[in-house]
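Private note to self, pasted from the team thread so I don't lose it. Backbone tokens:
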């Protein structure tokens, strides 16, 4: 009975420990995955913010350029210069073109910044999936290891029971041989003493 109790204690410990480790591994994986998902969400929000800031800065740039062109035209007109032709027209057109180029550069920089954040978001999302998959795999591995350990304990118990049965069989045979030898010895002794026994 002691052998069985030890076996069941080992099995319970092995299975219980495996289950506990399985759930702990899975929980840790979920926590890490959730943190990575949060980072992905944050990076996506930063990308949207970069685009908004870029558009705002580009709009400001275009507004400032428009005001500058207006100031140039007003100053030239106040001096009596014909603003619709010649170098005066070229100056205002160049100013407008440079302002538009600055606005485009600002937008392009914002798109590049947003692209960097979107790349980060994708990286975090991928890491989150891999982390969850890794935790799941590690959890299953823990269960498999615990199951194999339990199977080994059962096999060991079976071997011990078999050995114990063989030992008992040998002892029973030895007892039978001893009894047989004792009977032979008793019979021989009776013959020698003349059946006085």
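Design output:
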């Amino acid at each position: 009975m002691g052998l069985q109790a030890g076996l069941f204690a080992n099995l319970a410990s092995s299975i219980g420990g495996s289950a506990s480790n399985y759930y702990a591994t899975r929980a840790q994986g979920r926590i890490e995955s959730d943190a990575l998902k949060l980072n992905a969400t944050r990076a996506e929000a930063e990308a949207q913010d970069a685009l908004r800031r870029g558009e705002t800065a580009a709009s400001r740039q275009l507004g400032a350029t428009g005001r500058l062109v207006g100031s140039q035209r007003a100053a030239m007109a106040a001096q009596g210069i014909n603003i619709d032709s010649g170098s005066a027209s070229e100056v205002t057109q160049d100013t407008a073109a440079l302002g538009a180029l600055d606005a485009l550069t600002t937008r392009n920089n914002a798109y590049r910044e947003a692209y960097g954040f979107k790349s980060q978001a994708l990286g975090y999302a991928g890491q989150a999936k891999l982390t969850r998959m890794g935790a799941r795999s590690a959890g299953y591995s823990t269960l498999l290891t615990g199951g194999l350990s339990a199977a080994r304990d059962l096999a060991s118990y079976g071997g011990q029971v078999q050995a114990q049965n063989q030992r008992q069989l040998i002892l029973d045979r030895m007892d039978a041989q001893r009894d047989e030898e004792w009977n032979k010895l008793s019979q021989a002794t009776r013959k020698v003493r003349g059946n006085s026994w």
